[in-house]
Amino acid sequence: MREVAIIGIGQTRFGELWERSLRDLWAEAALTALDEAKVPRIDAVYVANAASALLGGQQHLGSLLAGHIGLAEVPATHIEAAEASGGAALRQAYIAVAGGMADYVLVGGVEKMTDLESEYQGYIQTTFGDQDFEGFNGITSAALYAMIAQAYLAEYGATREQMAMVAVQAHAHARHNPYAQFTNQIKLETVTRAPALAEPLRMFDAAPNSDGAAAIVLAPADEARKRGLPIVTIAASAQSGDLLALHSRKTLTSFPAAVRAAQAAYKQAGVTCSDISVVELHDAYTIAALLALEDCDFFARGQAGAAVEDGLTAISGRVPMNPSGGLKAQGAPLGAIGIAQVVEITRQLRGTAANQVPNARVGLTHNVGGVGGTAVVHIMKGEQP
Amino acid sequence: MREVAIIGIGQTRFGELWERSLRDLWAEAALTALDEAKVPRIDAVYVANAASALLGGQQHLGSLLAGHIGLAEVPATHIEAAEASGGAALRQAYIAVAGGMADYVLVGGVEKMTDLESEYQGYIQTTFGDQDFEGFNGITSAALYAMIAQAYLAEYGATREQMAMVAVQAHAHARHNPYAQFTNQIKLETVTRAPALAEPLRMFDAAPNSDGAAAIVLAPADEARKRGLPIVTIAASAQSGDLLALHSRKTLTSFPAAVRAAQAAYKQAGVTCSDISVVELHDAYTIAALLALEDCDFFARGQAGAAVEDGLTAISGRVPMNPSGGLKAQGAPLGAIGIAQVVEITRQLRGTAANQVPNARVGLTHNVGGVGGTAVVHIMKGEQP
Lengths: 385, 385
Known about the structure:
2 domains; Peroxisomal Thiolase, Chain A, domain 1; globular; 14 helices; homodimer; alpha/beta; two-stranded antiparallel sheet
């Protein structure tokens, strides 16, 4: 296996970008990453997108989006794994470079959620679960996560306020992020008194619908080192799955796919959770962040809520979580989520993030599709020339 | 790069399978392939599907379908490239095994086109093209291929009857195929007098809507050889793209993406078109088969029609084309097409096909998405123990 480096990153602002189209967003992120990477050619393009078929009536995004940035002839492939599409696409790009099938690879994620048939947003979430047995019977994504939250609060005696603190911290972290959808600051009561989605989850417990794109250029690390510039290497790329329907699982208070992906990633990278300087975790709902912190082994079962409350996941804490603001505040354009997480970790490891964790050396991303049906974990290491 | 072998194949019957669901079809094909492969484990699953988001409101098929056959924990990834989803997914699976990232990989394609919102079939085809500039303005897939046909007939003086012979031959080839949707025999007049789709294309110039699935198990060839059974190796896996919208191209009478993919495949395999014993080409419309025969270099420009008319593409001809019946007669379940092509070539190279080409040694598959936006070509070689 060849070592793989990240040598270019790009990202659009996330938000309700009414004046921007899917291909515009893609082009901005991809061209920014390519401009920074300055590679002699691109051997392959991977596109992460979760719902353009339903949101915009547009499929075949490999061809469309590679062609839109002047790479029409390059093999271009669309990867979909619900909200984990970004992580899954990066993993395929990593496999291509690590295995020696390609040298220079562009991988980008994009979603255009506003402007196009947005009345279907709730329905779209059901297409990421088991439609025949969950969606068809009327259960929504929020309802599934609400059941998880109820079980978690009951099992561990964690509090609703601890859960709400995840959202408060997210907005605090996004404050100076120029790409963030929400930079306004919120209070605990903003979350606990928001309109209900599915009890105990309320509107501010959920990530928003967002437009946006993010992109990365990969290259063999040996090539990248010759440039004499700071690089970030991918020390581990791991993915696992689980039965798609939540009712088929043995536990409600953990995502076993994420546990497996994290353990595999730690093993591949030769690190433990205590070596990680900074993390971007998949906080689709506040409760999801608590599960993620425990699934990745940062805190013991049932302890993540108290850890957030005690500030252990703040920038200055032991496990700096989502310095970008995460899905909750930076935004959650489905297919772009997993790529944007790695873009933020890359900035952190270069020391150029808006909300910089001091001395960040090793970073982890955790990207989940559906209610834990797919989980992808990447570990990155910073390297000075 | 490691050499990669096909050690298991499976396929459902193609057709209007009203009593079968997406996951049922997948399971039948995948379990048949796994049963034959008898591997100690599966390291990765790739799912090819083109339109389940629109046809069945079901995405996240990696998780759903891996879980449905007892492989919930295995990294499972959904690949979409319109009608070339199957070829593109096989290529990702090939990259994983060739690069050493996985040993045993299951790759399957499935589509459930009947029974579920089938009134959208025409719309779905537009999602494979440039929706904003083609579909939005009312142009259908059949209309795009009709323009290609008009240009081809005008440019080369080929005849409408030559084009129709593609469909007649397809039905003749499918006659004894137990998996085929259409085993009835048709006459030239059946095609030329059928109801019009978009002139000069009529109903029998087009592949049908089909339900079905096909699956393949890959392994390192060195591993496979130890079993002492006939194997088929993948001698080349190549993909290229093109500008998605037909109006952006410089030519109407060839798919440059297919030309590039075929040339790259010949180079990788170290063969020329004259070494190929049998081919499965993407005959979405009769005209597409003529382009394919020329794009893959089997006949000079403008000569494919006469070649079909003269029987050169029959089983006993110089370029035995689509012994399965192809998309036209075996059927065209979108995501399964590219996998089913390779399944048929594998049977041919094993010498076990229903419509066997004598002494088939090297086979080629040609899988196209949209109107040439993506093309994937694989070359396989048979090997006796």
